Amino acid sequence: MHKRLERALALFKPTLVLLCYGMNDGLYLPSDPERTRAFREGQLRLHAAGVKAGAKVVHVTPPLFGPDMKVPPFYDGVLETYAQWLVTQRPAGWLVVDVRPSLREAVAAAKRVDPQFVYAKDNLQPGSEGHLFIAQAVWAQLAPMMRWKSDASIGDRAKWRLLQQSAIVLRDAWVMKIGHKRPGVAAGMALPLAFARSAALLKEYFKS
After folding, report:
1. pLDDT digits over 25-61, tens only?
2. pTM more than 0.85
3. Rounded to 5 degrees, what are φ and ψ at 50?
4. Residues 4-21: tens digit of each pLDDT
5. Is the dihedral of CA 97, 95, 124, 38 positive or negative?
6. For residue 131, what are the contacts with CB-CB under 8 A and spacing of at least 6?
7. From CA 96, how far away is CA 173, in angstroms rounded?
8. Which of 14, 156, 173, 193 could form a disulfide with 188 if both were Cys (CB 3.0 to 4.6 A apart)?
């Protein structure tokens, strides 16, 4: 991952990097000092790489695990430990977005409206509403952090799909350009074609 990140930073030259890392790092097992140490060292390496590349680095805490379960799973406690360590880095100048409190509130509110609401069927991967909750939780803290207009809206669901399509096109193109070792990943477009396709989708999105 670290080598791939170095290539990504060198090719993309970002001014802002959001790092959301840690959901899988506890291996879905009880807390362990070695895994905790590896998580912290990984975050430190990622932070240093982003800063070295000249980017502003924002760390996003791992989201929730199993919020639909009646009894909170132990693994969510492991993730909470990871999240709180990130929060403690703020005095050192780290920019940290803690999505977990807002996510808990959003899931609880959704269940009050619809008791059958499910955030993640497998307790891990959120559905479309869960992903929207994560995006809203990130935006609520990131916008003021970056001094952006915080009341921006992505529009209705149909228009949101255009943003999603643009993001997927660019993601796949950059993954192909940077290189990876994941089996079964479809090749993305060449970057010039991806840029053109993304521009067309964004033009459609910004139509009044």
Report:
1. 788 888 899 999 999 999 999 999 999 999 999 999 9
2. yes
3. -65, -45
4. 888 999 999 999 999 998
5. negative
6. none
7. 28
8. 173
